[in-house]
Design goal:
globular; mainly alpha; 12 helices; 62% helix; disordered N terminus
Length: 285
């Protein structure tokens, strides 16, 4: 009789992460590794802007972001438009989080967010009337929803880092309420930046939460546990934190260059035809 395997105490706060083979395949679909990273960022930003228009809670938006990045790790950008995938992921996330939203409202929000998907502020976002979107738009959303579900094998388990971050901050026993509030807000902002990129499919939520707190601590000059290696308490090592910092630096560089493109009047890369145009642009650069 074989002995039962002891349950992993961290299982409830972990996600399925990208494997090396999956990352390699995602970089061999006719797109450069740099363009793949840029498209992930653009889609992540579009999802956040759309979620803000819908006034969704952070938990819902973050769930959609994880699903988006997971899907496009396995499915190519030349076969699936970013805007449709975002619609499908937001729709799934609202159901997973039990936040009922009319599909037409999701379509209207994403279509509006496409005006300024990177939130540059240089172009006004014009709200659309949900009733103006006919069956073809809803069919595209339902098709994207099914593609995400089937591609991910109907595995919709998602853990996001925001609640963990607040719980970890509470565990620090910081005496000054103003310091706690400042740290919490700065860490929250760093998590928002992380979620736009592929960090959430490369690193676990606890590592993201800890790194966000570490960055917030440095920025605000508020010491956490007297500067000791407090991150080890939350089962995070400096290698994971270093990886997140490298990816976050890459993400910020992408944000700057992609926003510069929009400011120059170039169209955002949101649909299959836009991706094809970017490939041709890279080839002639």
């Amino acid at each position: 009789m074989t002995s039962e395997k002891s349950p992993d105490p961290l299982a409830p706060i972990t996600n399925a992460l990208a494997t090396a083979d999956q990352v390699l395949v995602s970089h061999t679909r006719g797109l450069s590794a740099d363009l793949v990273a840029r498209l992930h960022y653009t889609g992540g930003s579009l999802a956040q802007v759309s979620g803000a228009i819908l006034k969704l809670e952070t938990q819902v938006i973050a769930t959609a972001l994880v699903l988006f990045h997971r899907f496009h790790l396995l499915a190519g950008f030349l076969e699936h438009s970013i805007d449709d995938t975002v619609k499908g992921c937001l729709y799934i996330a609202t159901m997973l989080c039990e936040v009922p939203v009319n599909p037409r409202d999701i379509v209207a929000a994403v279509e509006a967010a496409c005006d300024d998907p990177l939130a540059t502020g240089f172009k006004s976002i014009i709200r659309r009337k949900p009733a103006s979107f006919g069956p073809q738009f809803l069919n595209a959303l339902y098709k994207a929803q099914l593609q995400v579900l089937t591609t991910l094998g109907f595995d919709m388990h998602v853990v996001v880092p925001y609640t963990l971050c607040l719980e970890y901050l509470q565990a620090m026993n910081i005496s000054e309420a103003s310091d706690r509030a400042l740290l919490g807000q700065r860490a929250w902002n760093y998590l928002n930046d992380m979620m736009k990129s592929r960090i959430c499919i490369f690193q676990q939520p606890n590592a993201m939460a800890v790194t966000a707190l570490w960055l917030a601590s440095r920025e605000t000059e508020v010491d956490l546990l007297d500067g000791e290696r407090w991150w080890t308490i939350f089962d995070v090592d400096t290698e994971d934190m270093g990886h997140i910092l490298v990816l976050l630096r890459e993400s910020k560089a992408i944000a700057i260059s992609e926003r510069d493109r929009l400011v120059k009047g170039l169209e955002p890369t949101l649909r299959v035809e836009d991706v094809t145009a970017r490939i041709n642009e890279e080839a002639t650069a």
